[in-house]
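Table 4 source record.
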Amino acid sequence: MSLPRVIVDGPLSPDLEAMLHGQVEVLPWLAPGTDYDDTIEGVYTYGHPTVDGPLMDRLPGLRVISNNGVGVDHIDLEAAKQRRIPVGNTPGAVDGATADMAIALVLAAGRRIVESDQMARAADFEQQRPQLLMAHEVHGKTIGIVGLGRIGRQVAKRAAGFEMRILYHNRHEKAGDDTGAIYVSLDQLLAESDFVVLTVPLTATTRGMIGSREIALMKSTAVLVNVARGPIVDTAALTQALQERRIRGAGLDVTDPEPLPRDHPLLRQSNVVITPHLGSATYETRQKMAELSIENLLAGLRGDDLTHQVG
């Protein structure tokens, strides 16, 4: 009996190949406008190509879309729902690692770690001076978490270890929360926080939610950390604020666009730490993501409920 055919948007790791061996036939992602075989039953994506209604219509045999990652803003969920195609993702698998990255960026930007590293490596480095690269402590400060979901809760638990005052903002207050976080409006969170951490999904509501007005509410000593999605922040507004030192700094694991053009002014700012979307980049997390995304894929191909279905 022939194996179900699945198109994949990038090269598979050896572990993924081993998991799929003998269970599906893997086909490379085809170029736009290319005719697809109507026997293709699955789409496996890492979060890059757009999976929209027209693509789904070119795959009349499509039974499941499995995303190796949490964010599904590249998938037209309404189009999938209309066509009764289940969409799976990997929540839970990335929570701890992404929260670790958030706290790492809090520390790196807050304590000027990258600037310090560059200075220590410089050929003209001088003996340390009393006022060299002064920074503010992280311990005991106020952290504001925008989006107290799975990742946000993990950030809060880590922040508690630094004895930080923890604020959060969601669309609605979370009943029975055990993190010790205090629910406030977004404006109050921005005004009172020393570190603002973004962990919300990218939606029509959150796109551009941190713009010039919101940044103007922040303390001049505050640091903005984004481990969610780049378009949540107005890049031009953030760049200008950093250039004019209206906030102290930023730590960005995501940007808009991503990656930034090599001549982008944000890359020349010493008061920003940028990492290339590595929140989930640990061996353990990527293994969990692979396992869950494959579980979703195979369940959909069998006609079973997905381990985690979006919506």
